[in-house]
Amino acid sequence: MASEFFDLFRQPEWLECERRVIAATGGTCANCGNTAPLRVHHSYYEKDRMPWDYPIASLHALCEACKREAEEHRVELRRQIGLVSYIHSERLLGYAQALEAFDHPETTIHVRSYEHAEGIGDTCGVTAETILRRMVNETVTSALLEEIFEEQRPRRVSELRGGA
Question: Domains in the chain, please, with CATH?
């Protein structure tokens, strides 16, 4: 079974995908800039999905050291997520999706619950109520999150300077 999985990485579809991902970084590690031999890292896997059938944003050209570190982080993160209660996992999901929205401007998040809104709000420095009040058709977009985040900037700067 495992050898069948690894055989997929010799298929022409994967080799072409790998070539495109590495070319997109100019042949340098997306994490450290190293030009050592690069490998493509999947930020996640889904059962029954071919390695080349992932969004390009989820594939990263990394040197061997950064790929090893990314794999270790993924294992640690999955372990931690497995120990979090369901209600907290909703908040964690909101937080992760909001971070994705800042990285990918086309992102739209369907707000699933109050706890989900808490996680989204945490990312912007606002309450769940603010997210719930500002969402449209139970969704928030990257643009809306950017707007909310920017509105909070003066308050955060003031707090950093010791103001109220």
Answer: 2-78 (3.40.1800), 85-160 (no CATH)
SS3 string, the chain, reads: CHHHHHHHHHCHHHHHHHHHHHHHCCCCCCCCCCCCCEEEEECCCCCCCCCCCCCHHHEEEEEHHHHHHHHHHHHHHHHHHHHCCHHHHHHHHHHHHHHHHHHCCCCEEECCCHHHHHHHHHHHCCCHHHHHHHCECCEEEHHHHHHHHHHHHHHHHHHHCCCC
- Give 80-105 pLDDT, tens digit per residue: 999 998 889 999 999 999 998 988 88
